[in-house]
Design goal:
The chain is α/β, with parallel strands linked by helices and 595 residues long. The chain has helices at residues 6-15, 61-68, 110-118, 126-136, 151-167, 194-207, 224-232, 242-250, 267-272, 276-283, 305-314, 346-356, 369-381, 395-407, 440-447, 471-480, 493-496, 526-538, 548-551, 586-590, and strands at 88-91, 141-144, 187-190, 215-218, 237-240, 261-264, 295-300, 320-324, 334-340, 361-365, 386-389, 412-415, 428-433, 457-463, 484-485, 505-507, 513-515. The strands form three sheets. The chain has an eight-stranded mixed sheet with strand order 1-8-2-7-6-3-5-4, sandwiched between helices. A six-stranded parallel sheet has the order 9-14-13-10-12-11, sandwiched between helices. Helix 8 (242-250) packs across helix 10. The chain starts with 5 loop residues before the first helix and ends in a 5-residue tail after the last helix. Residues 101-129 form the DEAD-box RNA helicase Q domain. Keywords: ATP-binding, Helicase, Hydrolase, Nucleotide-binding.
């Protein structure tokens, strides 16, 4: 039995790989990124000295490696060029508003431009093309874009650039070694969860590298004493979850008097989690600027009416609305597969699926904390390198779990919805909905953990008779994204294709893929072409999910044939481009899965 205790998690982190998890997929050599067990909020930032200038500030090789190393960065994938064809709707603002086609087109601060190069950003994504220049020009915005579309860089680059330009003409505010009783941030970024806060902090550390800007993150569940210490050292960019920020306000640790920029990220999720009263308390705080000097932006994956009400209440009357891609849709770079089975078949089906696919970072979503722990035990006892993440984990355990997943020591993450929004982790190849959710927005956010930055990905959903509440919406989404609609969802097709311009894909009688009404062959279908592109990239040495060493072994394979799953058509698993070989044995994998 795997004991989910803090001591166990931290001890295993410090000890490195555990022998019994090396069977199926193997593990890469583990380097503990957190040897002292420090909180994520204490991760190092660039320490600016009083005598530094933009030209003379020295490099920090160790920090640079941590922030910009290839292992920690999500690179643009083979589908990144598709972003050029994604439509964007912009309402409001000047008619001659600017679209940024290159980061160098804006007068961004040289330090920010240098860090953009360090992060290997080559071309702006659609949300960056539209939102970045508008924020840089001083407009309030309400922006909606699909997951993994570059929203973080869209607002961090203009805000940090403008702050640096202003601070370079002013005395240094946060001197090293100085202590203050109250932090006075210039930019405030509010997010719904601790994991998103940590992720945002890492991005801010990267964009603020070699600058005088000092980012700080505070979130619940972690040691308040250490976060208070970080605030006392000074804070230019404050990243916070709503509850911990209210706590800091009540303790007199934070003043909003100097805030120039306020960002609500994942605004729909903030409201879904019941934080609206906290947001209103923060935004109407007595020391929050009420004049035109405060610039505010809301970023969201969806546009429910509650988000629009929030925008009307806190954005300026002339705020600009940006919509990139289909609202409520998901990226077409994700190949979605829905399999019907019985509840008792899920466990065996999952194991067969994991055995039949190349080793890769995989997120498995379940419906409850109890289910997460149970499935974690099952997979762990079958020698899968897995770890679970849910709300009952304390913050140190959560950070340890994410570190193990990111570094590849535990490339299978079993999670509840706590990890289903916004987590931007390199090379997540596969998302599995072990327990299908009831809301289509939640489904979209779950599968959005893969196919980041134009990389391809696979989403597998286990569907049972108890999931009919989402069937119609799921079918509509499959249609919209030109995915295969399995036979057992065909009865919902009429509802899903009532909107204008539907171009849907459904299963042929032989279980293959075809475009409805077009008479296309498997090779001609949208899904088949996507599968071929995916396979060429991943299995022929691509950098998503599998290393070239493993990729060569699977150059002609699929994700395998599921044993035990019941589908109406009885079709094989995965893409039509190739059929899977026999299921690999655990012993056979150990020698090839050293990634």
């Amino acid at each position: 039995m795997k004991e989910p205790t803090t001591a166990t998690v931290i001890e295993e982190q410090q000890q490195g790989p555990v022998p019994q998890t090396a069977g199926l997929w193997g593990v890469k050599e583990y380097v503990n990124p957190n040897p002292q067990g420090v909180w994520a909020s204490e991760r190092p930032i660039y320490e600016w000295k009083e005598d530094y200038t933009d030209e003379t500030a020295p490099n920090n090789a160790e920090l640079e490696h941590e922030l910009f190393d290839e292992e920690n960065r999500i690179n643009a994938g083979i589908y990144f060029d598709k972003y050029k064809t994604i439509s964007a709707s912009v309402k409001g603002g000047p008619e001659n508003r600017r679209v940024m086609n290159d980061f160098k087109e804006l007068a961004l601060h040289p330090t920010i431009l240098e860090n953009i190069v360090r992060m290997k950003y080559k071309e702006p994504t659609p949300i960056q093309k539209h939102a970045t220049p508008l924020l840089f020009a001083g407009y309030d915005i309400l922006a909606c874009a699909q997951t993994g579309s570059g929203k973080t860089a869209a607002f961090l680059t203009p805000i940090l650039s403008k702050l640096l330009s202003k601070l370079s003409k002013a005395p240094l505010q946060n001197l090293p070694g100085a202590r203050r009783t109250k932090a006075t941030p210039l930019a405030l970024i509010i997010l719904p969860t601790r994991e998103l806060g940590i992720q945002m902090f890492d991005s801010a550390r990267s964009f603020a590298y070699k600058s005088r800007l000092r980012p700080v993150v505070i979130y619940g569940g972690a040691d308040m004493k250490s976060q208070k210490e970080q605030l006392s050292k000074g804070c230019d960019i404050l990243i916070a979850t709503p509850g911990r920020l209210i706590d800091a306000i009540e303790r007199g640790l934070v003043s909003f008097a100097k805030v120039k920029y306020a960002i609500l990220d994942e605004a729909d999720r903030i409201l879904d989690m019941g934080f609206e009263p906290s947001i209103r308390q923060i935004m109407t705080a007595s020391d929050m600027p009420k004049d035109e000097s405060l610039q505010t932006a809301l970023f969201s994956a969806t546009f429910p009416s509650s988000v629009q009400v929030l925008a009307r209440d806190f954005l300026k009357d002339d705020y600009i609305r940006i919509r990139v891609g289909r609202i409520g849709g998901t990226t077409s770079d994700i190949m979605q597969k829905v399999v019907k089975l019985e509840e008792y078949q899920k466990e065996e089906t999952l194991i067969n699926l994991l055995l039949s696919q190349p080793p890769s970072r995989t997120v498995i979503f379940v419906s409850s904390k109890l289910r997460a722990d149970k499935l974690d035990d099952v997979l762990y006892n079958k020698n899968f390198p897995c770890i679970s993440l849910h709300g009952d984990r304390n913050q140190r355990e959560r950070e340890a779990a994410l570190n193990a997943f990111k570094t590849g020591r535990s490339p299978i993450l079993i999670a509840t919805s706590v990890a289903s929004r916004g987590l931007d982790i390199k090379d997540v190849l596969h998302v599995i909905n072990y327990d299908l959710c009831d809301e289509i927005d939640e489904y979209v956010h779950r599968i959005g953990r893969t196919a980041r930055a134009g990389n391809p990905g696979l989403a597998t959903t286990f569907y049972t008779d108890s999931n009919t509440v989402i069937a119609s919406q799921l079918t509509k989404l499959l249609v919209e994204c030109q995915q295969v609609v399995p036979e057992f969802l065909q009865e919902f097709m009429d509802e899903a294709t009532t909107y204008e311009g539907a171009d849907f894909v459904k299963e042929d009688e032989d279980g293959g893929f075809g475009v409805s009404g077009g008479g296309a062959t498997n090779e001609d279908s949208v899904s088949a072409r996507r599968a071929a592109d995916y396979q060429a990239h991943v299995f022929d040495g691509g950098d998503v999910g599998t290393p070239a060493k493993v990729a060569t072994i699977f150059a002609s394979s699929d994700w395998g044939t599921l044993k035990g799953a019941v589908t109406s058509s009885g079709d094989d698993w995965g893409t039509p481009a190739a059929k899977a070989p026999a299921k690999a044995s655990q012993d056979g994998w150990a020698a090839t899965a050293n990634w």
